[in-house]
Amino acid sequence: MDKLINDFSFGLFFWQALILVVLLVLLRKFAWKPILDSLNNREKGIKNALESAEEARKEMQNLQADNERILNEARAERDGMLKEARQLKENMIADAKSEAQAEADKIVAQAQATIASEKKAAIAELKNQVAGLSVEIAEKMVRKELADKKKQLDLVDSMLGDVTLN
Amino acid sequence: MHRNLGTEFLHVMQKRTVVKILLIFTLVFNVANLFAKEPEKEEDGGQVNTKSQIDTYIEHHLQDSHDFTLWSDGETGAHVGFPLPVILWDNGLKVFSSSKFHHGETVAKVGDQHYKLDHGKIYKTDAEGTINYDEHHHATNVKPLDFSITKNVVTMLIVGVLMLLMFGGLAKSYKKGALPTGFGRVLEPLVIYVRDEIAIPNIGKDNYRKFMGFLLTVFFFIWILNLLGMTPLGVNVTGNIAITVCLALFTYFITQFSANKEYWKHIFWMPGVPVLMKIVLMPIEILGTLTKPFALLIRLFANITAGHVVIMSLIALIFVADNVYVMTPISLLLTIFISVIELLVAFLQAFIFTMLSALFIGLAVQDHDHH
């Protein structure tokens, strides 16, 4: 300790203090301030750039999500439309089918009615013709039979016989 | 999360650069020492070869001196170097060249006064230059106030100019572009290192900026001086008690003057303890403000002085040993080994001094939220 105090040089202390003060003032003005300022600015710039990049990324993500959503919506809409169209088509087909059926039924019924009436008419005509023919045949046969007197008498006899039998 | 990744990446890059720079410094100085230290000692070797002579030599080296001697030849008494101005305050300002002392061999006559150098100090003597000693072998002659531009002052001036050139250049390089060029690329990470690893963690993001000037100046000043001390120039500035006292006083005054109300309250009237304890704690706390810078100055002084003593002693092994051929390689290896450690210490002491200064300042300016 004694030696330390003995070694202490006031002159050196004085110069050191002076040099340090001058150095502090000069360096602060000409070196540290501009250096630290530019470092800060640069770091701020880097930070800002990183932040804006991050923001852009987020925006991009949002945009992508939006796109996805819109796409999904469009897809759903298309599906809905397709479904509706299919429904419509099915309905139309079903309607057409039932209409056609009804028309066909009607036509068939009409046809059947016509056929029945025709048939009736035909049968009636046939009956008339058969009756006419029978009468004609009977006339002819009677004429032939009654050509001879004897036979006429026979017939009257037989008929009279039938009547009595009745 | 991306931004974090980005800053983390920058941080790692900076750390890597700092480590690389340190490695390069270590290598360069190691090689420089290898080639430079030996020849210097060879020249001294003519005479300095006894134990007591080596002790004196080492002691002489550790001291400041009034002339810049690169080496001296013991046999012929020739000194290679240049004299420095001596400035004395002794009934008026006296300025003369240190060459008048002839390295302490003759009495310098300035006006009607006689001065003589003894163990690096200037004493007033009579015309014959007699120096009286007391029983502890201390000179009892009157010492005039010595404001000489000594070897250490010259070294500090050189370092000051060097720092102005280096960092002024770095500052200027930012005007040309966002990134520094050339040597600025080495300095910039160091500045960032001081800011991010020393100032901000200790002082806090809000207050650190005010103290950056002091911290950066002190850090590079000490580091460069420490490194210069390792070159064969033979300067030992930071291993000088006056220098470390001055540096520590700066830290002390800056701490006290920037301290906030909370800090003073904790010193004079510690909150949260009984009144009796407050009274007991007051002198302890006041003493504490003084012991902090005292620890600073002793740590720096002792570390650098010890490093110089060890390196010089190891080199001296060559000259005290009986068998030079065996001792030389051993001494060389040990010296290189210690030199590398001392390079680390040179940085470490600058770092610790700055770090602790920042810590003390931080304690003085921080808000005591936790109370």
How would you characterize this protein structure?
- The complex is a heterodimer of chains A (about 170) and B (about 375).
- By secondary structure, chain A is mostly helical.
- Chain A has three helices and no strands.
- The longest helix of chain A is centred in the middle third of the chain and has 136 residues, at about 10-145.
- Chain A is rod-shaped and about 205 Å long.
- The N and C termini of chain A lie far apart (about 185 Å).
- Chain B has about 375 residues and is mainly α.
- Helices cover about 65% and strands about 10% of the residues of chain B.
- In chain B, the strands form three sheets. A three-stranded antiparallel β-sheet of chain B has the order 4-3-8, with no helix packed on it. Chain B has a three-stranded antiparallel β-sheet with strand order 5-6-7, with no helix packed on it.
- In chain B, α6 (about 240-260) packs parallel to α9 and α8 packs antiparallel against α9.
- The longest helix of chain B is centred in the last third of the chain and has 46 residues, at about 275-320.
- The chains are: A mainly alpha (about 170), B mainly alpha (about 375).
- The interface of A and B includes residues 7, 22, 26, 28 and 38 of A.
What is the SS-derived class of chain B? mainly alpha
Structural class of chain A: mainly alpha
Largest sheet of chain B: 3 strands, antiparallel
- Which sheet architecture does the biggest sheet of chain A show? none
Report the radius of gyration of chain B as a whole number of Å. Answer: 24 Å
> How confident is the prediction overall: mean pLDDT of chain A?
89
Secondary structure tally, helices of chain A: 3
* Apparent shape of chain A: rod-shaped
Radius of gyration of chain A: 66 Å
Number of strands of chain B: 8
Shape of chain B: globular
Strand content of chain B: 5-15%
Distance between the termini of chain B: 34 Å
Unreliable spans of chain B: 34-47
What is the averaged pLDDT score of chain B?
Answer: 79
- Residues in helix, % of chain B: 55-70%
Q: Roughly how much helix do the residues of chain A carry, as a percent range?
A: over 70%
Q: Please give the number of β-strands of chain A.
A: 0
The helix-strand sequence of chain A is: HHH
Quaternary state, please? heterodimer
